[in-house]
Design brief:
The complex is a heterodimer of chains A (435) and B (260).
Chain A lengths: L1 E5 L11 H4 L14 H20 L4 E4 L13 H11 L4 E4 L11 H13 L4 E4 L5 H7 L4 H20 L4 E4 L4 E5 L13 E5 L3 H10 L2 E4 L4 H18 L9 E9 L3 H19 L15 H19 L5 H6 L3 E4 L1 H15 L3 E5 L7 H19 L45 H8 L1
Parallel strand pairs in A: 1-2, 1-11, 2-3, 3-4, 4-7, 7-8, 8-9, 9-10, 9-11
Antiparallel strand pairs in A: 5-6
Chain B lengths: L1 E6 L4 E8 L3 E6 L10 H6 L3 E6 L16 H15 L4 E6 L1 H12 L4 E7 L19 H8 L6 H7 L5 H22 L7 H4 L7 E6 L10 H5 L5 E6 L6 H4 L1 H13 L1
Parallel strand pairs in B: 3-4, 3-5, 5-6, 6-7, 7-8
Antiparallel strand pairs in B: 1-2, 2-4
Classes of the chains: A alpha/beta (435), B alpha/beta (260).
Chain lengths: 435, 260
């Protein structure tokens, strides 16, 4: 069993009356709700948390791409990947965006991922989500009718750019390039592993099965609701004669560990409430642009979709509902061990994307949650899939060949030896810029 | 009368509605498509031979994969008229269909006798941004496109069936239609008509709805200032759907213009 510590990087300070007073957390959320000074602190807290997860022995550090929202503050996850590459040593960098249909030309993604792979010593997992309808259609203006076709073309171009030995020309419908020649090329050969995060579109199962990519189901409705999607994926895999290797499935799950079940509710309850009610307050008109989902996906899950939307709109879900419905796995280490084992077994899942900072959760609580999980839960689940080989994790450089960044010396400030952080009037900053 | 016709060597199947006899009148529907009960077309059929095809992706028409942009769709209508043996016709287009009708008249200049653009899309004014129909739920849409959202007409458009199977079919059909429409309207309903509108030679009437909140009457000027032989009228107590909201006035206006 492998564990990727996944961060959404939410804005933690939405107002109390956000759900009733504001239209949507995504797409058209007012910009004056975002304070960049708070944002500065949040980014640095969140990177601290990811770095801590590295030290606690998680296999991967996960980040993703979203636009124009307070639910996730990473329009470019590659920037976080770069920050993590320098300050982490062990964990893989699981960058579960880039939404490749959004970049023109898509070789930009091939290049940036190659950079991250080289920089990190071959620790990159390349995530290729289609992206939510909010991100792709509403924020980035992609025509819904052609989004998936464009995605597929970008995918083919990026894979070819990584693996082709010589300069080649690419004559696509959406991208035409005379010279494709990737410098740098990825460190992992022939290429980094590709994980495809999905939200339950049936075409994505075929796509993953056909290309041998790992499928990561990312929802926040937990393993009970996720079972249907996992079964759908495994059915496609079985039908195509592919091995039902648990490591070819990733699954996102909110997990909250405390000393006891009761303590977990006291610690985490308000933050779950913040997440499910404020962070997921998406205006329904932005949820599914017509054409974002194919007819077969709509028909396959129509009733369930309506049901889920209805459930979402049901205000006032409480802690016990979240736990009972499996949205979250929470409680004492023993409770979490038992439920997580049951969940992973029922899904046949080898890659857990674990969400331990959620909603408004403050740093000290994130640290506690992460540490308790790493010490008291993770070791117990490690050996869950002894008969399967994980073919979807990076093949990095051996430890001896990985470059070590120089130590950061905070005492060397500007020319006068002061540390920029102590400056209150910006003088030190100006001086160092003038150097 | 309705028929299914295969054209372009089988690339497309076209669900074609036809009404009446007389000079041919090609009607291009809007993003929502034909409703199935479109009495204004029957009315126009008393004076013209009305040809009202469903765009591929709408109704039973197929071949969406062969249409990506306005040139493709213009050639589709061109081919359809060729195969119907229609040398020239009046063209009436509503909303998105107005945009496509204008494109058609700019490209296939000699085929269009007279052109009627009803609350047409095709331009964008920063001072008057067109609301995003794709993000609207039905009641909000109704408030934008109907003069009186409480009218039985508006209610008919926005009623959600209780039967789940029926709801699924309605939802899937709506998604199919809007998916195809997104090729011309998403995210901004401007595909460069301003570069081509000068070529339109047909006498042109632009019909706007007094209380249209989707494409307000101010947009008429974008058409009349670029199309040399054109003028605009505004229909009172109508919004984006004047042919349904004020059927009599609408049909009279169109008939007098085309016969005049």
């Amino acid at each position: 069993m492998k564990f990727t510590w996944f961060h959404l990087m939410p804005y933690r300070f939405l107002p109390e009356d956000f759900t009733s007073k504001y239209h949507s957390v995504w797409v058209d959320i007012p910009r004056d709700l975002y304070d960049p000074k708070v944002g500065h602190r949040l980014y640095n807290d969140y990177l601290d948390q990811l770095e801590f997860a590295d030290q606690m022995g998680f296999d991967g550090l996960g980040v993703n791409e979203h636009h124009q929202n307070a639910y996730g503050l990473m329009p470019s996850p590659n920037i976080m990947g770069a920050a993590m590459a320098r300050r982490t040593r062990h964990a893989n960098l699981v960058v579960l965006g880039n939404s490749i249909a959004l970049y023109n030309p898509p070789v930009r993604v091939a290049e940036e991922f190659a950079m991250l792979d080289v920089l990190s010593g071959g620790r990159l997992v390349a995530g290729f989500p289609v992206g939510t309808s909010m991100d792709t259609n509403f924020c980035y203006g992609e025509v819904p009718a052609t989004l998936r076709e464009k995605y597929k073309e970008a995918h083919d171009l990026i894979l070819k750019a990584w693996t082709e030995k010589d300069v080649f020309a690419f004559n696509g419908k959406f991208t035409k390039l005379r010279y494709v020649n990737l410098w740098p090329k990825p460190l992992q050969q022939p290429r980094p592993p590709v994980w495809v995060p999905g939200g339950g579109s049936v075409e994505t199962w075929d796509f993953c099965a056909d290309y041998g990519h790992q499928y990561s189901f990312l929802s926040y409705f937990g393993y009970i609701a996720g079972k249907k999607v996992a079964d759908g994926y495994w059915n496609v895999m079985a039908k195509k004669g592919k091995p039902l290797n648990p490591y070819s499935l990733g699954f996102a799950q909110v997990v909250a560990v405390a000393e006891t079940d009761e303590q977990a509710e006291r610690d985490y309850g308000p933050h779950m409430d913040y997440f499910y009610n404020r962070c997921l307050h998406v205006y329904q008109g932005f949820a599914d642009a017509p054409g974002y989902r194919t007819e077969s996906t709509i028909r396959s899950g129509f009733l369930a979709q309506v049901g889920r939307a209805a459930a979402l709109r049901r205000e006032g879900l409480k802690w016990k509902d979240f736990v009972k419905e499996g949205y979250i796995i929470a409680g004492s280490p023993k409770t979490v061990r038992d439920r997580l084992r049951e969940a992973m077994k029922s899904l046949n899942c080898g890659h857990l994307m674990i969400l331990q900072q959620i909603g408004s959760m403050p740093p000290e609580l994130v640290r506690k949650n992460t540490e308790l999980f790493a010490r008291e839960v993770m070791p117990d689940l490690r050996g869950l899939w002894p008969d399967w080989e994980d073919k979807w994790s990076p093949r990095r450089l051996p430890e001896s060949e990985i470059a070590v960044p120089a130590q950061l010396n905070l005492n060397l400030g500007g020319a006068n030896g002061t540390n920029g952080r102590t400056s209150t009037n910006g003088e030190a900053h100006g001086r160092s810029a003038a150097k | 009368m309705k028929e299914l016709r295969r054209i372009a060597g089988g690339k497309f199947t076209v669900e074609l509605n036809m009404f009446g006899t007389g000079e041919p009148l090609l009607y291009l529907h809007g993003a929502g498509g034909l409703v199935g009960v479109d009495p204004f077309l029957e009315d126009l059929g008393h004076s013209f031979k009305v040809l009202a095809p469903h765009l591929p992706g709408y109704g039973e028409s197929t071949g969406v994969e062969h249409i990506d942009d306005v040139l493709d769709v213009t050639l589709f209508y061109h081919q359809l008229l060729d195969e119907l043996g229609v040398a020239s016709a009046h063209v009436v287009g509503h909303s998105m269909g107005g945009m496509l009708a204008a494109e058609f008249a700019a490209i296939d200049v000699h085929r269009v006798k007279k052109l009627v653009l009803v609350t047409p899309a095709g331009f964008w004014l920063d001072e008057h941004p067109i609301p995003d129909v794709f993000a609207m739920e039905l009641p909000e849409l109704a408030a934008h496109i109907f003069h009186d959202p409480q009218s039985p007409m508006a209610q008919m458009f926005t009623t959600i069936p209780q039967d789940m199977k029926l709801l699924e079919e309605m939802y899937v059909e709506r998604v199919k239609r809007f998916t195809q429409a997104s090729k011309f309207l998403w995210p901004i309903p401007d595909r460069g008509l301003k570069k081509r509108a000068w070529r339109i030679a047909a006498p042109t009437l632009v019909i706007m709805g007094e209380s249209d909140r989707l494409i307000p009457p101010v947009y008429a000027n974008e058409f009349t200032s670029r199309i040399r032989n054109s003028r605009a009228v505004t229909i009172a107590r109508a919004a984006h759907m004047p042919m349904y909201e004020q059927q009599e006035v609408f049909v009279k206006t169109v008939r007098e213009f085309l016969k005049g």
